[in-house]
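At this stage, I needed to go through a protein sequence along with its fold in token form, as given directly below:
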Amino acid sequence: MESNALFKIGYGVYVIRSKKESSFNGQIANTVFQVTAEPPQIAVCINKQNLTHEFIQESKTFSEAQLPKQPQHILKTKLKKRRKR
């Protein structure tokens, strides 16, 4: 993990994804935070009853991607409505 990535972790909604054998699974999470700077580590809160938890337990890996605060398709729809006025 690049240490600069730790500076970009902020409040938001995240997609958490993991792999088990040849299958992928993902879920939405709202808690991702930095645990240590050296070595760089992050943590994510996952419900133990979710399939993603099972995938993370087996593979020992996960990825996270923060969703945009305002998805582009919503923004474009709002702009189109304003132009029609």
